[in-house]
Fold:
Amino acid sequence: MPTGSIATVGPMTPDQYCQQKATPRGSSCYYSVLFLPPAQRAAVTALQAFRRELDGAVRESLDPGVARARLEWWRGEVRAVFDGRPQHPVARALVTAIERYAISHAGLDAVIDGAQMDLDYNRYPDFATLELYCARASGAVAQLTAEVLGCSQPATRDYAHVLGLALRLTEIIRDVGQDARRNRVYLPLEELEKAGLTADDIIALRQDERFERLMRFQIQRAGGYYDRALALLPASDWRAQRCGLVLASIHRALLAEIAALRGRTMNQRVSLTPLRKFWLAWWTWVST
Structure:
C-alpha cells in the first residue's frame, strides 16, 4: 500500500471522514447536499470524497511514480469495495452507498481514469482530449450521483454526463492561474495557438487582450454545456436531481463573476460567499 493512501481517521466514522473531506461548511458541495435525505446525502458525499482523494493522490505526490502507485492502490480498493474488505474510510462509506444505490464498478473506475489523465497530461493538445478528461474526472461522478438521486429515464444520465463536463470546465476556468503555478495548462494548446498564445504565456501568468478573448470563448462554451444539460433533463426528474441543479446554479453564478472580470483569473481565485451559495441552493431547491 503506497504511503499516505490511508488518512488517520481517529474517532471519526467513514461518513464523518467523507463530510470533512468533501463537504466542509461553506463549500459548494456542502450546499448542494444540504437538503438531501440523510442516506442520499451520505452516498453523494462519499462519491465526492472519492473524487477528492484521487485528486489528492495525484496533486500531493511530487514523484509521478508514487502517484501512479497510489492510483493503482485505489483501483484495488475499489475492487475491495465490491468483493472484499476495503481499508480506506471513503471506500468503507462507498460500501454502504453501493448497498443502497446503483453505483457501478465501471463508474468508479472511470473516475480513476480521469485522475490517471492528470498524470499523463500537464498540457492538453485539443478540446477533444480535454473533454474526455472532463467526462472521466467529473462526468462519471455526476452520472453516479444522478443514479443515487433517482433516474426515471435514460436521458437523465445524459443530462448528468453533460452537467459534469460543465462543472469541470468552470473549475478549469476558475483555476487557470492556480494550475499554471503547478505547471499545468488545461486550456487546449490548439485554442491557445489560435488566440496567438502559448502554454508558456499561461505559465508566465500573462493577461492581455488575447487572453481575455480566449477566456471569453471558454466561458461561453462552458455556459453552453449548462444549457445543453438542462435541456436534456426530463421534467419528471427535475425534483429528484435538485442536488445537481444546485451545483449548476452555484457554478453558473461563479462563471458570471469570472465573466465580469473579463476572465482574469491568473492572480485571483474567484469565489462566492457562503451566504450567496446558501441563497442559490435554497432558491433552486424550493423553486424546482
Remarks:
- Residues 209-232 form the longest helix (24 residues).
- The domain at 26-268 is CATH 1.10.600.10 (Farnesyl Diphosphate Synthase).
